[in-house]
């Protein structure tokens, strides 16, 4: 199996460093190494470790699939290829181009580039717009510099590395991306959930998509989605406490516009109604820029008996937001 390359063009420069650390961390098992970092274009080389047969194209795709909502929002292009993206001169030297068995299809690209490529490629290169009759796909990406630099790569068709299209339709609220980024790798099927600060319903719709059994949504605002599994308590969390005190939840999420101390206070009040095995996801809104974070997190960790606590700056978080994820697993008695 040929080792793959991951090509990504970010939307704007501000997300570039986050993508670099995201891939070098998330794809460290594949030895992700940054080969090209030009303008908004990033190219990583990856390796299937020879002694780990499970780390193959299928597992790489499933790893990336869980982050599709991030890519669809913060990258204008992402694809995997089995040939190293190269300049035009190197593409012309590729023996595949003169192989009579090879028929190329151009991957989606700008109409101008498509036209010039069709005109410039040697006439011996066979091309077809029809996927079923072509043996390879020619990908072309450009940097955002002026003048742009172009990189080309040839991937066999059908590609073993095809990423599915990003999820659609677009979510009703951009907050959706925060939860989808944080919880993508957790099993949410049949969970009982509570969503504090749920209006207009981005987080709730994500949880429903992931197959939860039911959700109590607490927010004085309007919920823009309807679902049989959803109950909306149209009030502040402080006023809902009595009504929910007899319930039990597996998942608690909170994106309410409140100071982190208040959000953590909400958690302290709900620990008693969480199942032993539970997941909690809270946006910490550092609106006044001041927060003695470490101490409070340690307190909530000990008090709630959580064994996993992660505070991170998600792609989808605003400048003064951080995401806190807490997990408590079942104690073995
Ligand atoms: C950023 S929005 C939440 C967006 C939501 N996560 C989504 O995906 O649609 C913050 C919400 O917090 C709610 N909120 C603020 N204080 C609250 C409180 N004490 N209890 C419940 N909701 C509160 C506001 O009404 C607002 O709708």
Automatic annotation (TrEMBL):
> Cross-referenced SUPFAM superfamilies, in alphabetical order?
S-adenosyl-L-methionine-dependent methyltransferases
Return the CDD domains for the record.
AdoMet_MTases
Output the Gene3D superfamilies linked to this UniProt entry. Vaccinia Virus protein VP39
Locate the Ribosomal RNA methyltransferase FtsJ domain: which residues? 173-259
Pfam families cross-referenced by the UniProt entry? FtsJ
Task: Tell me a GO biological process for this protein.
Answer: methylation
One Gene Ontology MF term = methyltransferase activity
| Highest taxon above the source species | Eukaryota
Record's protein name: Ribosomal RNA methyltransferase FtsJ domain-containing protein
């Amino acid at each position: 199996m040929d080792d793959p390359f991951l090509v990504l063009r970010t939307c704007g420069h501000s997300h570039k460093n986050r993508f670099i650390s995201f891939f070098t961390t998330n794809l460290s098992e594949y030895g992700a190494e940054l080969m090209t970092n030009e303008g908004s274009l990033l190219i990583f080389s990856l390796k299937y470790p020879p002694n780990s047969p499970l780390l193959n194209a299928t597992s790489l795709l499933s790893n990336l699939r869980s982050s599709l909502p991030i890519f669809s929002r913060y990258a204008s292009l992402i694809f995997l290829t089995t040939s190293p993206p190269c300049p035009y001169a190197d593409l012309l030297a590729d023996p595949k181009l003169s192989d009579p068995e090879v028929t190329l299809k151009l991957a989606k690209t700008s109409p101008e580039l498509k036209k010039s490529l069709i005109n410039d490629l040697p006439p011996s290169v066979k091309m077809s717009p029809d996927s079923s009759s072509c043996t390879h796909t020619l990908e072309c990406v450009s940097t955002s510099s002026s003048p742009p630099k172009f990189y080309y790569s040839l991937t066999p068709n059908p590609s073993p590395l095809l990423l599915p299209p990003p999820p659609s339709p677009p979510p009703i609220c951009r907050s959706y991306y925060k939860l989808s980024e944080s919880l993508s790798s957790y099993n949410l099927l049949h969970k009982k959930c509570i969503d504090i600060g749920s209006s207009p319903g981005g987080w709730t719709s994500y949880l429903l998509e992931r197959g939860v059994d039911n959700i109590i949504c607490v927010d004085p605002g309007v919920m823009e989605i309807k679902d049989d599994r959803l109950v909306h308590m149209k009030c502040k969390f402080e006023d809902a406490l009595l009504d929910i005190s007899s319930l039990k939840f597996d998942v608690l999420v909170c994106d309410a516009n409140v100071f982190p101390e208040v959000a953590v206070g909400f958690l302290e009040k709900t620990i008693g109604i969480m199942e032993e095995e539970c997941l909690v996801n809270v946006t910490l809104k550092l609106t006044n820029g001041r927060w003695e974070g470490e101490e409070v997190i340690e307190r909530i960790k000990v008090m709630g008996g959580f064994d996993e606590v992660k505070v991170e700056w998600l792609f989808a978080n605003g400048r003064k937001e951080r995401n806190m994820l807490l997990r408590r697993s079942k104690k073995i008695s």
